[in-house]
Amino acid sequence: MNIERYGANGIVRDYDAGVIFVYERENTPDNPSPRKLKQSPHDKFNWDDDTYEFGEYLIHPFGDTNDLPTVIKNILFDNYMAPGLLHKKTQLLWGQGPLLYKEEYRPDSNGIPRPVRIWQHDKEIQDWLESWEYIDYLMAQCVDYDYINGALSRFIRNRGVRIGSSPFITELEHIPADRGRLATKKDSGSRRPTHVIVTDKSFNASGILPKEYRVYPAFDFRNPFAHPNSILYSNLYSFCMDYYTLSSIYGSLEWIRRSTVVPLILKALSDNSLNIKYHVKSPQAYWDAIEQKIKEDCTRSGKDYEQQMLINFEKALFRKITRVLGGDENVGKLWHTKNVLVIEGTNLIELGWEIEPIKQDIKDYVTANLDISKHADYAVATGIGLHPAIANISDSGKANGGSEQVYALQGYLLTGIDIPERIVLKAINYALRFNFPGKGLKMGFYHEAAQKQSDISPQNRIKEIAPVND
Question: At residue 329, does pLDDT exceed 50?
């Protein structure tokens, strides 16, 4: 016989007797076990008013324990679905990549002026962009925005300003969300952050600042060349939040957890294939009385009480229960216990053993968990902000139709791109404005219009233009 304990509960296996059952100890009303409710680090919203004092600065925490980006990362990366959806969302924002454009107003067919992007190539700007790996920078900015709706950028100015050369932003650097925190100088009298603290390691729930850190002034678009290095936090404003954005994924974190747990439950069921027939309940008062009796016996005999004595009694008792419950030849045998009535206030409570047969409805159990998983998948896609057709989630489990995907994509490109693009490209468009003031060029993500294959001429359809390997 083998007993696996999980606290006061456990699983009893006796393959020779042909029985497996779970057991549970129920606490008596007058001696409940203490239950501590531990609050999750992302259950509160009052952290927006908190600060950490650090020398001459006040650091504004990101999350109740100043590690919200790490909390979100750990929850999402454990999930089988969320990282893929976020990656797809990044691809949708990226489109065919970043390009330069000039915005003009041109009349439509009704003569009404409409803003139009005129995509252009400029060698001087392109040479500057390619001198500092702007593609990697922009990809990192896109990812941070999709996860936490904000991104940090460091402006690096040229060093020759004091000897007569014109000020120039030489490059932009992406700062990971878990490494940077907004801060305000104590004597500034400002509610807006005046500086950004950057560390080499992630901020953690302890609130202690890592030893390796650097302090940068916040970027000021009114005086962009005031400092050799400065940092801009570009983000989507959250309602009633002063400093950071509360990620749109935040409200879906519990559903993401549910979506993560279901595959683990099914894996455990598949690996163990437990055929549990009974659930045995025993009152904690019984075990308290047995423990007290063993202690009294030890006192009379001059022995020291050890916890293993109670465990040995438990094993012997469960062997008796196993003989009663196991095997066809034991049909008709009885397990007899006496119930005890306990008066608790005005209530009369009955304490005793219970043995409940467990229905072997494995199919119903699996189906219930799959239903939970399916609903969780919809909730995850909604929290991430993707239409189920784009996320490829359907009731049947099959891929959505092409038309449905095209219409969902068209709607997303019309309504879901502009704000993320402005936030992700805010820093680089500032740099373009200040480095090349006479050109009037901006950067944007180029997107081809989504079309159904039936609306495209045969020679231009995907299957016709796809590369062929000889």
Answer: yes
